[in-house]
Amino acid sequence: MKKIWNKFYDKLNTTFGFFVLVLVLFWIKTFIAYHTDFTLGADTSIQHFILALNPLPTALLLFGIALYFRGKVAYWLMMIVDFLQSTWLFANILYYREFSDFLSFSIVKGSGSVDNNLSKSIMGIMHPSDVLLVYLDIIILIILLITKLIKIDQRPLKKRFALTITGLSLALMMTDYGLSVHDRSGLLTRTFDNNYIVKYLGLNEYAAFSAYQTYHQDTARKRANKQDLNEVLQYLKENPAGDNVQYFGKEKGKNVFIFHLESFQQFLIDYKYKGREVTPNINAFYHDKNTLSFDNFFHQVAQGKTSDAEMMLENSLYGLPTGSAMINYGTQNTFQAAPAILDQHGYTTAAMHGDVPSFWNRNNTYKSWGYENFFSKSFFPDSNNPNYNVGYGLKDKIFLRDAAEYIQQLPQPFYCKLITVTNHYPYLLGKEDASFPETNTGDNTVDGYVVTAHYLDQAFGEFINYLKKTGLYNNSMIVVYGDHYGISNNHRPAIAKLLHKKSVNNYDLAMFQKVPFMIHAPGLKGGIDHTYGGEIDVLPTLMDLLGIKTQGKYMMLGQDLLSKQRNQIVPFRNGDFVTPQYTKFGNDIYDTKTGRKLSLNDSQKKQVDKIQDHVNKVLNLSDKIMTGDLLRFYHPKGFKKVKKSDYDYSVKDTKKRLRKENEKNHTSLEDKNHGHSTLNDYVTDAVELKHH
């Protein structure tokens, strides 16, 4: 035994022996992370083999660089490469835990626009075991080198040996790719969930693919030309939604409120815990006889999360497969968005958000979309008080109360979007604000969700009461929607407990992506509508209700939810989909009505393939419009191109402009109230304002 150990120890004291040790330790921790921190869905024996193989090719290639050097340089190069690869693994473990996705170069590149308050989220996500798993081997190896328990071999390796390692890594890459494409055809050419890329090719290869996607997005604009529009125009011509006769123009001339429920999922509607409704005010609004509520409405966001939801809401264009379209394209692209369209139909347009204006690049994107006003953190006097903020901005009760100050000054009719933030991960709320008990799923990430959702609901109720008292309720179309999931698919046991199930499968997770969508107006024929749709369909629906014709004029990829002819295909950004008949999640197809997993017959396979082709087509066309900035070549009749230089979101300029407009129009709520403020009509139980 001693001889074996001595022999092994002697090998460790060679450059190649240390190289093998570093490689094996890195492979082990990556393999453990694949199985404990990511949900990659390896089902077959070949997929398990590929999953075991895929950390090795790039690890061999990158660690192998050190073999071209000698002595200390070679050893420390290996340690530096190990640290960099491990940090990439660590960052993805944290990101995946919350977002069920992997970091992309677009996200990293745009992190400056979304890093506000992220430290709280990261601390909430991180477990001590993460650091132990990822960095323990590096720490031990450094100690062994410093204490000379492992001695540095000064002898140079032959160059052909290093070249052999490089060749072996490239051969393994080709083998891995060949096996992967054989098992999953079109892996890099079709729209796939990033889980597939990592499962088949590995985390480092995914990083390279993500970098290529980012480069492709950055160069697509230069290659685009006017002829690229033809494919989009042909698609729109072949896929009309048909006229919405019953509802078209019913809300013409009304004010429009877009109420953005942060991280709010459909399951919360009518959900009770310990005999209490989590969201009684939103429930009452949902069931109101003048509210059209959709119970098969899905979020369709990817890595852009809230920014993707806004992109679809305002433009009927999808977000990107990686990164955020608002960050990557919001500043320079041409858009024909809801604020610009409505502005040219006599509306005052405003967005309100109790956080910094640069978050998700809103300060630039909103100008591109034609928002006349953007009321961000600097407009709200309470925003500088740390006790008034939580997570990603002003607490909802305070934000909505402060927003009323500016709502009453907007010339009518207006289009006003209000973005709430309190119901945002990590679902933090002080005891003085929390008036609902945490759930007992045993998952700390999940258990606070109902607490912040209840607080959001209370804030919503206060806001609706204000609209009723001031008369805005009777002269407005109020649109309420959830932007994306609040609980990611990585919390399956907790999700099962919340849904009162023993366990959840992929069908349950697909249905868990439903978010609320409601449209309320006095006299509107309401009810629960079972139509299948998603965020891409919001804009054409609202435009039809307002009597603004969009079909055949604007490039909107969604369809009016109230049209009887709509196709009811709901594409997800990763290429999965839901229809009234079929639900696709990863490799699995389910019967949407029953949730039963299907083994497709020939007829069903043809139907599913046809739906998949449609999904791939519309996602691809959206990407072409976005990355090629194709709308710069398109000039809808009667639409004036947005000039970003026309907009100034400074506090001074905005207040001056509102004064001038009100002196001219006298249509604002404040003017209607004989120049008096209506803030006395706003009643809130926000504890901070009670102490004010």
From TrEMBL:
Active site: T306
InterPro entries for this protein: Alkaline_phosphatase_core_sf, LtaS-like, OpgB/LTA_synthase_biosynth, Sulfatase_N
Membrane topology of this protein: Multi-pass membrane protein
Molecular-function GO terms, alphabetical: metal ion binding
Pathway assigned in UniProt: Cell wall biogenesis; lipoteichoic acid biosynthesis
Record's GO cellular component terms: plasma membrane
Occurrences of domain Sulfatase N-terminal (ranges): 254-548
The keyword Transmembrane helix appears for this protein: yes
Positions bound to Mn(2+): E262, T306, D483, H484
Keyword Metal-binding among record annotations: yes
Taxonomic superkingdom: Bacteria
UniProt-annotated binding residues for substrate: H424
UniProt subcellular location: Cell membrane
Keyword annotations: Cell membrane, Manganese, Membrane, Metal-binding, Transmembrane, Transmembrane helix
Chain segments annotated as transmembrane: 12-34, 46-69, 76-96, 132-149, 161-179
Family the entry assigns: Belongs to the LTA synthase family.
PANTHER family registered for this protein in UniProt: LIPOTEICHOIC ACID SYNTHASE, PHOSPHOGLYCEROL TRANSFERASE I
Protein name per UniProt: LTA synthase family protein
Protein's organism: Candidatus Gallilactobacillus intestinavium
Lineage: Bacteria, Bacillati, Bacillota, Bacilli, Lactobacillales
